[in-house]
Amino acid sequence: MRQGRRARGGRQEFVSPMPMLPPWMRALAYLTVVAVLVIALMAAFAILHLRPGPGMPALALAFVSEILLCIIVVAVALLARRFVDRRDCGSLGFSFRTAWLRLLGFGMLFGAGMQCFVLGLDAALGFSHLAGHADTAGAARTIMLALPLFIVAALAEEMSIRGYVFQNLWEQWGFLPAMLATATLFAALHLSNPNARAQLGLTLLGLAAYAIWACWSIVWTKSLWLALGCHFTWNLFEGPVLGFPVSGIDMPAPTALTQKLSGPAWFTGGAFGPEAGLSSILALCAGFAVLRVLYRRGTFARLVDTRGEYARDALTG
Questions:
Q1: What are the two backbone dihedrals, phi and then psi, of residue 130, each rounded to the nearest 5 degrees?
Q2: Which residues pair with 258 in a beta bridge?
Q3: Residue 268, CA distances (Å) to 10, 157, 223, 283, 305 in order
Q4: CA-to-CA distance for 238 and 129, rounded, in angstroms?
Q5: In this structure, what DSSP letter does residue 87 have?
Q6: Spatial separation of the C-alpha atoms in residues 155 and 16, rounded to whole Å
Q7: 14: Cα separation from own chain's centroid
């Protein structure tokens, strides 16, 4: 039977004679399909003996893996939104009808600013000391190599977790339960990273705090662009620029700055990086306050809203 479409509020919604799955089931189905495809990808890597070595540097392999993962999660999300949810793909939050470059720029400033806030806290308390810095050419090389990796990693995580899954759970349960559920999921997905279990409670809390910040940014800006920009520069400044571990992963030398941490791991995050410490939670609180002030002043008031009807009933005060 033929699938049609109808206009509602200036957006295209797709209609079909087939019954729709409840939103929570669509989110679960999406995660299941992505998990199966990722397992198949890992099996293919094992069969082809793709592992770090002389012919395949670790950074190059990580980039190839992230590119393929990004293709999987983005493609499945777009196809599911179009054919399973029967909604316009722009409703996921990546619409070009809004001031996307402006929002992306705001997000990049937030990500860089909050990481600099972390460094400032550590330094002010005597918990971090500058142990050295790279020459301009070396720092530029590390940053340029990391740029594409962090761009695709941010896109993959935002599209999957705070794009498809969050939007469907929001439609099913409302904003606050969906935010808490996806924050828990985001934190849990990082538990396989190196050093994630060294101080498990703080690691989960720090990662969940970041996810909560990102969810509120989606409510107030009506899109994922600011969250994407923040995610990208959060990682970029955390690792290649400031020299901290990025979610448990040490950056290849030389980073622009080299930090020597001497403070307690519960504050600095230790070997996992700032996300496992109180420093990043304080930075996120400061970033949340700034973002809320911008929202209350109407900075995002005239942005085009391409989200579904369910998103307009969120707590926005």
A1: -75, 115
A2: 132
A3: 48, 24, 31, 12, 38
A4: 15
A5: B
A6: 30
A7: 28
What residues does 74 pair with on adjacent strands? none
pLDDT digits (tens, 9 = 90+) for 198-238: 999 999 999 999 999 999 999 999 999 999 999 999 999 99
Which pair of tokens denotes residue 253? 């030398």
Query: Can you tell me the distance from the alpha carbon of 169 to that of 311, in angstroms, rounded to the nearest whole number?
Result: 11
User: What is the separation of C-alpha 134 from the centre of its chain, rounded to a whole number of angstroms?
Assistant: 28
Q: For 142-184, what is the HEC assignment? A: HHHHHHHHHHHHHHHHHHHHHHHHHHHHHHHHCHHHHHHHHHH
pLDDT tens, residue by residue, 76-128? 999 999 999 999 998 999 999 889 999 999 999 999 999 999 999 999 999 99
Half-sphere exposure of residue 206: CA atoms within 13 angstroms, side-chain side: 31
Q: Which tokens sit at 305? A: 């809203």
Whether the CB-CB separation of 269 and 201 falls below 8 Å is answered with no
Token pair listed for 54: 């002389």
Tokens of 288: 């949340």
Residue count of the chain, please give it: 317
Q: What is the dihedral of CA 65, 71, 77, 80, to 10 degrees?
A: -120
Residue in this structure with the two tokens 């929001």, named with its chain if needed: 170
CB 306 within 8 A of CB 295: no
Tokens coding 287: 């970033």
| 317, burial (CB in 10 Å: exposed 0-12, middle 13-18, buried 19+) | exposed
Look at the pTM and tell me if it is higher than 0.85: yes
Task: Give the single-character DSSP code of 84.
Answer: I
